[in-house]
Amino acid sequence: MENRDKVLADNRPTFDKKPVICKPWHKDIVDFKDEVKVVPIWIHLKHLDLKFWGNRSLGKIVSSIGEFIQADQATINRDKLQFVRVQVEVALSQDLPDCVKFQDEHGILKTIKVGYEWKPIVCEHCKLLGHLAVDCRKKKGKKVWVAKTNQTIQPVTRDSVVQDTGDGDEGFVQAINTFQIRQESISPVVVANSFQMLQDNGGNIEDTIDSGVTALDDGGGLPPDSNG
């Protein structure tokens, strides 16, 4: 139990530069969604003199932003001189400044720019972290019924509208909204009739039957055999 409390008090883990909030568990716990009011974040104090890199001085400098928690190991070892990396605890409802001001031991006003690795985003609707009110899933949209309008269709006429250009083009006119009507050509159907020759030469056929002789290709013919 003591080790658990020590880990929760000393260790403040982060994921993707965002704080991971850990709380003790017990068997009677019902709701894990406790209201969060403060969160730890990492900030950068840019171009700060080395003489102010101690924890006591850093705590006074960042007091206008939040409560000082710790400085990272690179700041303690003086490995990165471009900025000081400090973890502070801030309230979700406060505004985070872009710079901090303080007076040094000589009364000279110093202005230090502040950079934030991550800023907490609070939804104004559900009061939860991580999204804005416009993206809140718990916000119910209001449905408004709108009457559907019927779209009128303009009929197309086949009459061509001819407009005179008036440019004196010797009788030439400009056709507007014209289109061509495709006409399909109908081919005549030839019907062959095997009895047509009988109709055309009916009289000659009768004479031929009476005489018993059929003329073939301007040639002669013989009477049919008596056996058929």
Automatic annotation (TrEMBL):
InterPro entries (alphabetical): At4g02000-like, Znf_CCHC_sf
Residue ranges crossing the lipid bilayer per the database entry: none
GO molecular function, one term: zinc ion binding
Protein's recorded name: DUF4283 domain-containing protein
